[in-house]
Each structure stands twice: as structure tokens, then as C-alpha cells.
Amino acid sequence: MTNPSSKLDLVLLWHMHQPDYRDYKTGEFMLPWVYLHAIKDYTDMAHHLENHPGIRLVVNFVPILLDQLEDYSEQFASGTIRDPLLRLLSVPDFDHISPGERLLILNSCFLNNHETMLKPYPAYQHLRDLYDHLQKTNDKELMYASGQYLADLLVWYHLAWMGESVRRENECIVHLMAQEKLFSHGDRILLFNLIGELIQGIIPRYRKLAESGQIELSTTPHYHPLAPLLIDFASARESLPETQLPANSVYPGGRNRVAFHLQSAIDSHQKRFGNEPSGIWPAEGSISEPLLDILIEHKRQWCASGEGVLANSLQKSHPDQPLPARSDYLYRPYRFESGNSSILCFYRDDQLSDMIGFEYSKWFGRDAAENFVQRLEQIHNETNSNPAPIVSIILDGENAWESYPYNGYYFLDDLYGMLENNTDIRTTTFHEHITRLSENKVEITRLTTLTAGSWVYGNFSTWIGDHDKNLAWDLLCVAKQSYDLVMQSARLTDEEKVAAGQQLASCESSDWFWWFGDYNSPHSVGSFDLAFRKNLANLYRLLNIPAPMTILKPISHGGTSTGEGGAMRHAS
In terms of CB atoms within 10 Å, which end of the chain has fewer, N or C? Predict the structure, then answer.
């Protein structure tokens, strides 16, 4: 059977995610990444879609990110800001802030990609030069930095993190960037208020895009847990048989915890967007047969993972046969069955996804967009015997753009424009593609065996297997055992049980395990290490039992970057 539409379906899935940065004891945000990505990436990505109504794609929002965006919105509405860095933006006089607040500004306000977010702005670069001069003389000299220096530095940090669409169209930002220095309290209040407006508009903008039918919104289990490992640590050995597992052989009650995260995400999506999500992007694209069973039990239509997982699964299904050409197996969905029900699994094109994530940032925007479309056209030619070919491009929708000039503005604008006008490539969503498969009665290949893995290398080595990661799992296992004992007793009120459950869910996020390891920088590892251990300490506090001394000691220290660290990884 030939392709009934003679078109190549393209699904772009932008994954929007940040872990829970809130200290449940103080209510303060420990790190500012939610609101910084909000004013830069979530804002720009909505702008590009609004400017290109012919583009259809999937946006995946992790519920814990939406929780925090709503938290920030409520902070601006109430006038009580619980993010220390954001709060400083509205302080009247920087000559009278505390030594700790001075250090927060100095330690935070150069944390970005200097090539794309600092060097293009001479006034910001000058502030960095002054910082370097004082630091080379003596670290203590930094304490002599004036209040005006700190004010200008804080303003420029937020200007550098501002979305390119805002930088081009908002008069306040245009004025501040032209002014360059000597920012007053009034200037900072204008910037502060704009940040509030941008954050408060994010969820409504994406809801409107979904209601128009332009985008499909999908979700992830609520706090972004590495679900296959919660269910069974041994799943790590399906793709890497020699993986060293934590001392605790299993995470207590892991399957129920995964079901909790999933149902909570479905409920969150229904509440915010008025319907249940058709599909699930599991945290880190990590899947296993037990997880797919849970997704089927919850009646989800589709999920997605990485190309390496599909290759491992096909090799396991047919161990005596070599893999066919990628074009013969990758560009189609696979049906996974459980009982009388099933779910469709889509697999990302790792090569093309990584081109956007890591390579095209080094190209001129239009050249990169043209190359991407040419590669799609080549895939279209290679899949002419496929009745309904589909290319799945799935990647981080926020961290990638920091490496691009102008936050990827020209690349995305050119790419969306070319795709809108291409007669052979159809941008679509997974739900729409499934509907077309049904209407055209296209037979879907059944996947008889699934090898557990993630979108990174097709395995779980990023989250389990070395000393630091396994130690973190063991600390979490011990905390979960304590949680279970307390929950079985009558020691806590219903309200206290809910609070403890939320804190446990935050501890179960995959992000903590991602950052442990010597391939990440000491600064990044240190901040996430501290946040994870604070979460564990708060869990014990909410359970009204003493925390073990083991959580007082850092788990991991990081090391020299190998080029594979940071917030994104290559798939292979």
C-alpha cells in the first residue's frame, strides 16, 4: 500500500520542564530557573506559534512546572515575592541590602551562556570586566561594589534572559537596553512588573493555542519521576546488564507511586486545559513494559520515547536478525498491547532532534532551517513504501535556545515559515496522526517485546549505576520506608499527610539523579545536591521524625565538564 496522502507527517514535540525549586519549609524558591525560562523560552515559543498559525505541533508541559508558574503568578498578584533574586529587583536601595543579598547578586547574575547572552551587550560585558578585575585582586574586594553596580548587574541579567520577541516589541525593554546603565528604582520596577505580566500570560496563551486546535498539549507524570526505575531498579539492566544497582533492591511501593504521579498529571491537565491529555511524554522518554501497562490502565492513547529504545527492543525481539535501515523501522508508530487494550508508541528521530538541540545553534538560522527541511524531504523519499510515514522530533523546548544567537529567533521563524509553505511535509500532532491512521485503515506494527530505556543512550545510565546516583537512590529509599511507616500510623492529620505526600513526590523527581556525577560542573551539582537533601530533610520534618545524619553530607561534587554535562544530553 502506498502513502494515501503522499505527505510526510512531522510532529515537533517541545518538552517544557523544570523541577520543583521550592523549599517546602520556608516557601522560598531555591533557584530562579522557572521564572527566567518563563520570560525567555516559554514566552518566545508561544510568540512563534502565534506568528505562524499554519504550524501544528505538540507542547508537553510537566505539571510541576505549571504549578510553579501559577505560584509565581499568585506572588505577583499578592505582592509577596518568595524568590530571593526576583525580590531584589524591586528593592529601593541597593546600598543597604545585606551581605548575603549582595553575594546572591554577584554569584547569580553571570549564570548564562556568555557567548550568546553576555558578550553581545557591551554594557553587560563591562560589568563582567569590572567583576573579573575585582576578583583577580581579591575576592573580598567584590564587597566594595557599589549599590549602583549591583542594580545595573541585576537589571542586565534579566534583560539578557528576556525573550527575543519581548526584546523586539516591548517599549520598556527597548528603552532599558538603550539606556545601558545607571538604572533607577523606577526602571527596575518597570522591568519587575513586565516579568509579572509575562509569567501570568503564559498558561492562558498556550491554552488559547490548544483551544484553536493549533497545538496538542501533552503531559508527564506530575513531578517528573524516572518511572521505570521507581517501578523496578532492575529495569536498568535490560539495556545495560552490568549496571550496578543501589543497595536497596527496590523502591518501596514504586508502582503505586508512578500511578499517583500519572493520575495527578491527568487531573492537573483536566483542571487547567478543560480536557484529559491524549498522550504522555514520560520523564526523560523513559519507558518499560510495566510503565506501559500503567499508561494503558489509565486509558492514554499514545506515549513516546527515544530511537535507541526502539532499536534495542527490535533487536531483542529478533536477536538473530540485523536491524533494517532506519527509514524502514523508525518512521512509524508501534502498538504495545496489554490484555485487551493497547497504546501507540512513537520514537524520536535522535539525529534530527540532536541537530536542533546541539548543532544548528552554530549555523546561520536560515541555513539551519533549510538543512532541516532538506533532511525531511530525503526521509520522505526513503519512506515511499510506508503507508503513513511520521517523523517525531522531540526535545527540550527551553534549554536549547540559550546556545542560539537571539534565542533561536531566526531559526524558528525561518523553520516554521518553510514548513508552512512545504507541500510534501505536513506538521501535525500525534493525536491527529492516529486519527488519520484509523480513517485510512493503516495497519500498525505490533511491538512484541520492549527493552526498558530512555531517550539518552537508550538506557538509564544518566540516572543510576554509579556511586553518587546510587547513594541518592538509597537515601530516597530509606526516606520512603519511613514515610510508609508513618502513613500507616495515626500520627499525622489528613492535612499533614497531604503535605508529606507532596514533599515525597518532589524528592522522586528524575532531575536530582541527572545532576549527580563528575561530568557536570561543581556549581550545578552543588546547587541541585543541596536542593535534593533539603527536600529529604523537609520530608522527615513533615513526618515528625529525626532526619538521619547521612543527608547532611553532600552526595556529589561534580567535576571537569566533558562536554556531555549540563541541562541537555545527546541521545547517543
Answer: N
Distances (CA, A) of 231 to 245, 340, 500: 14, 22, 21
As a whole number, mean pLDDT of residues 36-41 equals 98
Question: Is the pTM higher than 0.90?
Answer: yes
Q: Which helix (H) or strand (E) holds 430?
A: helix 430-439
Query: In 490-526, which positions are buried (b, 16+ CB within 10 angstroms) versus exposed (e)?
Result: eebeeeebebbbbbbbbbbbbbbbbbbbbbbbeebbb
199 HSE (CA, 13 A, CB side): 26
Q: Choose one of 166, 199, 232: the last residue of a domain.
A: 199
Residue 144 corresponds to which cell in the numbers above? 566594595
- Does one domain contain both 278 and 421? yes
State the pLDDT at residue 571.
66
Q: What is the domain extent for residue 493? A: 467-552
Q: What is the pLDDT of residue 2?
A: 44
First to last CA, the chain: 33
Q: What is the pLDDT of residues 83-97, one digit of tens each?
A: 999 999 999 999 999
Grid cell in block for residue 33: 530557573
Cβ 293 vs Cβ 443: under 8 Å: no
The answer to the question of residue 481 being in a domain is yes
- The verdict on residue 36 lying in a domain is no
Cα separation, 487 vs 475, whole angstroms: 18
Closest CA to 519 of 484, 553, 568, 478: 568
Phi/psi of residue 406, nearest 5 degrees: 55, 30
Q: What is the mean pLDDT of residues 429-441?
A: 97
197 contacts: CB under 8 Å, gap ≥ 6: none
